[in-house]
Amino acid sequence: MNRTETRELTFKLLYSNEIQKDIGQEQVDIFIEEFEVKNENEKKYIKETFNGINKNLEEIVGLIEKNLKEKWSIDRISKIDTAILKLAIYELLNSDVPYKVVINEAVELAKKYGDDSSKSFVNGILASIVKDKNIS
Description:
The chain is mainly alpha-helical.
């Protein structure tokens, strides 16, 4: 499994968390087992990313809300777009992956799983965060 596939699997876990709310560590382990993730680096990425997003949730949600149009709230965003944004923002702030790669991967997920407006919405929010945070 390559990083793109691992990232997509992590997105699916995050989406499940958006639907079910507060997935515990046991469910994360079951998820990894169910998708037959064998590689330790892949397991580590999924767990660290999932736990890191939950640990930094307030900051991540704050960045999403700050970059929404006036009179919009995070509750108005689809669960798919929310999961994609959380994953991408976490990576922007906590990894050495170039921001262009993070945004491209997020847009690809939005194209695959979101609706017609998801790719431009996700791209716009992430581009705004990169600019605001001066990420290079």
